[in-house]
Design a protein that fits this description.
With 206 residues, the protein is mostly helical. Helices cover 62% and strands 0% of the residues. The protein folds into two domains: 6-33 and 151-201, Endonuclease Iii, domain 2 (Orthogonal Bundle); 38-145, Hypothetical protein, domain 2 (Endonuclease III, domain 1), CATH 1.10.340.30. The chain contains 13 helices and no strands. Helix 2 (18-27) packs across helix 13 (190-201) and helix 11 crosses helix 13 (190-201). The model has no long low-confidence stretch (mean pLDDT 94).
Length: 206
């Protein structure tokens, strides 16, 4: 199968589905940010863990302290740092445990960011969620935002559910279970639909 860019996939879905065509006309083709280098991906996930259940400002402050402490956020630098030092940055015990588990799994090869983008979405989600503190939503946001996987369908995201309802004229937003099969007509480009759901609500994923 020909691999399309996000812009090409947007145009492809717009040509097939009127609901996507309306979003395409309003927002243009899906635009992904720059894809981080393999060596930068550990820090991306580490920041996601540090920022869970926090405001953007608080997350940035705490992760900034981690960066100041270890300089370059890598598996080796996290494993060299004492848990007490990480806690002093403002991280909870659970987040310290999650960061250390992430670092250990990357260090011993259990999790390989170099190959993660080349395997199916569900396999990548499974590998990421083996790490303490990483749930499905966090894994899916990484696959979309950092790896630019085009067939991620984050039904657990309230913005996607509410945006989909608004785009399609549903009076009540579907549940995650209800939304799951609704994405099937848009395979293998469900990320494109999720992006338009967020844009419809002006609700970017964290």
């Amino acid at each position: 199968m020909t691999v399309l860019s996000s812009a090409e996939a947007s145009a492809h879905l717009a040509a097939l589905h009127p609901v996507i065509d309306r979003a395409f006309q309003q927002f243009g083709p899906v635009r992904m940010g720059p894809r981080p280098l393999v060596e930068e991906r550990f820090a991306r996930v580490a920041r996601s863990i540090a920022g869970q259940q926090l405001s953007v400002t608080a997350a940035s402050t705490i992760f900034g302290r981690v960066v100041d402490l270890v300089d370059l956020v890598t598996p080796a630098s996290i494993l060299r740092t004492s848990p007490d030092g990480l806690r002093e940055c403002g991280l909870s015990n659970a987040k310290v445990a999650a960061l250390c588990d992430l670092a250990q799994k990357c260090s011993d090869g259990t999790l390989d960011f170099g190959s993660l983008g080349r395997i199916p979405v569900e396999d990548a989600v499974a590998r990421l969620t083996e790490v303490k503190g990483i749930g499905r939503w966090t894994a899916e946001m990484f696959l979309i935002g950092s790896l630019h996987k085009l067939d991620v369908w984050p039904t657990g995201d309230a913005g996607v559910r509410n945006g989909f309802a608004q785009m399609t004229g549903l009076k009540i937003a579907p549940t995650a279970d209800e939304l799951q099969p609704m994405g099937n007509p848009f395979r293998p480009y469900r990320t494109i639909v999720a992006w338009y759901c967020w844009r419809t609500l002006d609700n970017k994923p964290v």
